[in-house]
Amino acid sequence: MARKLRFIGTDSKVDGCPALHTDEGTGEVIVQGAPVTDPEDLAQLRHLGAGEAAVAVPRELLVNWGPKERERVPEMVDREAFRRLFETFQHTAWRLETRGGYASDREDPDYQEFLATGSAPCDLNEPWFVNIKAQTQAGKTVGRVRIADKPMTTGQRFLLDYSRCNAAVGEDIRYLWREDAAELPAEDFWIFDSRLVALLHFDDADTIVNIELITEPAEVVRYATVRDAARHHAVPFGQFAATE
User: Fold this and answer.
1) How far is residue 183's CA from residue 181's CA, in Å, rounded to a whole number?
2) Which residues are CB-neighbours of 217 under 8 A, at least 6 positions away?
3) For the chain, which has fewer Cβ within 10 Å, the N-terminal or C-terminal residue?
4) For residue 1, what pLDDT band results from cuts at 50, 70 and 90?
5) What is the mean pLDDT of residues 67-71?
6) Could you tell me the end-to-end alpha-carbon distance of the chain, in angstroms, rounded to an integer?
């Protein structure tokens, strides 16, 4: 069975080599670089077994992108600490939403109104909207890209309708069809100021079970790269709704 490899990073400024990848199944790190082939060089290597290869990579590649811990211990935060991130970020807060629906939406009275009438009400006095409006009016940027299925689930249609509420307080809401998002990970996360990631873990009922903070630079850069790719390909929600 083929490995499931995930790109970690590269120090190359041009062609992307050398680089590091990780095997998401085993945790092994795959080093990509120029092969060492000179017989005199190979003769100096210890413990090079049959079928093994040696590659040469810059020291900076391993310093900047190599795992910093042998076994990473996730750092979890409670809901209150997570909520405070939306009040204390300095420049940007951005989210990728990849699921077909969310339990928190289905528990919202606005969702029931949407099911009954086809449109959800907007109460811009809710704490979320009050805070986000204050942040965006202060010059900060808040945005999301939402991945949508064909056909859209009821939960996704609710969020598309509700996007007008988010936009009313300054959020930049964009959409991308899942078939056009094959290169993006199936992960839901917020990234704050390009330095901290809050990775959201869900159960099979679409309920958040825990929130993991990630600050390791190489991992944060990976999520920032995902953000940039998603924003590049996604379209504003109004344009998306007109073609849905």
Assistant:
1) 5
2) 64
3) N
4) confident
5) 69
6) 37
